Here is the input.
Amino acid sequence: MPTIHRIGGSSIRINVPDHRPAHVHVVLADRRDALVMLDTLAVVSRTVQAREIADALAWIATHRDACRQLFEECNP
Here is the structure.
């Protein structure tokens, strides 16, 4: 799972291989994990709330196209 960015105590990662639709994983220091869908920026997690990863969501929104391109390269 390549880490594409670190922000605070969180890592933004892409799993290889992974399922569609295109998304990234935000992994917190305590190992809780949230999927962030690149089309909508929706947070999918049973244990992580969007407010906990607000900085990561802002970074993903700014770099969404690069994240999508990397997801496609890693998951053809």
About this structure: The beta strands are 3-7, 10-13, 23-27, 33-37, 43-44. The first helix runs from residue 54 to 62. The first strand starts at residue 3 and ends at 7.
